[in-house]
Amino acid sequence: MASQNLHATGAAYAFKYRKEPRVAVTTLGEGASSKGDFYEALNLAGAWNLPLVFVVNNNQWAISVPRAKQSSCETLAQKAIAGGFEGMQVDGNDVIAVRYAVAQALDKARQGGGPTLIEAITFRLCDHTTADDASRYTPPEEIKSAWQEEPIA
Q1: 67: annotated active-site residue
Q2: Which end of the chain has a smaller Cβ tally under 10 Å, C or N?
Q3: Under a CB-based contact definition with an 8 Å cutoff, are residues 124 and 150 in contact?
Q4: Which entry of 7, 17, 100, 137 is annotated as an active-site residue?
Q5: What DSSP assignment string belongs to 60-111?
Q6: Nearest-CA neighbor of 113 among 89, 85, 90?
Q7: pTM attached to this predicted model
Q8: Residue 17 annotated in active site
Q9: Of the listed 17, 22, 128, 136, which one is catalytic?
């Protein structure tokens, strides 16, 4: 699902139009970064230099599709290039790094610097939904390894 990106783009446009020092922030999973409405939002955000921050939670799985099969981009942060603005990666398990990256992007947007895409790299340690059984497609050794990086644990 990526329709929220277009809603955030509309909100960001309203903030800019009203000359309000506000920034829209939208979050999505890496699977949503392959949807058409995501690319439409990137295009508008860049073309209109909107105060908007996209935060992509790259947990390595678009439901049951591994990241490597979902997109041939080397990084999801590179998708910002299509919109003509900055994209960056951050360790999604490092709360301080994520907070810093988001703060920098918010400050830049408030000062008229336009949108930013932040790819927070992490790993999904559980099922995608209550109807999902991630054990059918997630290798157990990947989950075991990912638990070593889990900040809350």
Answers
A1: no
A2: C
A3: no
A4: 137
A5: SEETTEEHHHH---S-SGGGGGGGTSEEEEEETT-HHHHHHHHHHHHHHHHT
A6: 85
A7: 0.87
A8: no
A9: 128
List C-alpha distances in Å: 123 to 66, 104, 126, 139. Answer: 11, 24, 9, 12
- The 10s digit of each residue's pLDDT in 75-128 is 999 999 999 999 999 999 999 999 999 999 999 999 999 999 999 998 776 657
Q: Please report, for residues 11, 22, 86, the alpha-carbon distance to residue 17 in angstroms, rounded to integers and kept in the order given.
A: 10, 11, 22
Helix (H, G, I), strand (E, B) or coil at 25: strand
Residue 7 to residues 13, 18, 27, 95: CA-CA distances in angstroms?
10, 17, 12, 26
Asked about 7 being catalytic, the answer comes back as no
From residue 131, how far is each of 27, 128, 134 by CA, in Å?
A: 22, 8, 10
Give the HSE-up count for residue 29: Cα atoms under 13 Å, Cβ half-sphere: 15
